[in-house]
Amino acid sequence: MSIVVPELPGLRPLSRVDCTGISAASLPGTRYNAIYMYICCSCGDGPKVYNIQPRCVVCNHTVCSKCQEVK
User: Fold this and answer.
1) Which domain of life, per UniProt (predicted)?
2) CA 15, CA 59: separation in Å to the nearest integer?
C-alpha cells in the first residue's frame, strides 16, 4: 500500500536510495550482541550493562548468578 503525499509548494521531493545488495555486515560501526543488564547483588548498584561492566565499579564484585537480571 503506497502513501500519497500532497504537493507542498517550495519543497522538492527527496531522492530514494537503492539499498539492494547492502548487508549489515558491510556497514561500519561496532556491533553488540544481546544486551544483558543486571543489578549487583553485593551493593545493589545498577542497572549495569554486562558487556560494558562485567565487574561492579562501585564494590568491585564480579557478576554472579545472585545478581538480579534486568529485562
Assistant:
1) Eukaryota
2) 53
Cell 562485567 belongs to which residue? 54
Q: Side chain identity at 40, as an amino acid letter?
A: C
Residue 31: per-residue pLDDT? 66
* Residue 70 backbone phi and psi in degrees, to 5: -110, 130
Q: Whole-angstrom Cα distance, residue 18 to residue 48?
A: 39
**55 belongs to a structural domain:** yes
Q: Which residues of the chain have pLDDT under 70?
A: 30-33
* Residue 13 in domain: no
Count: domains in the chain: 1
> Domain of 45?
34-60
pTM: 0.52
Q: What is the pLDDT of residue 32?
A: 62
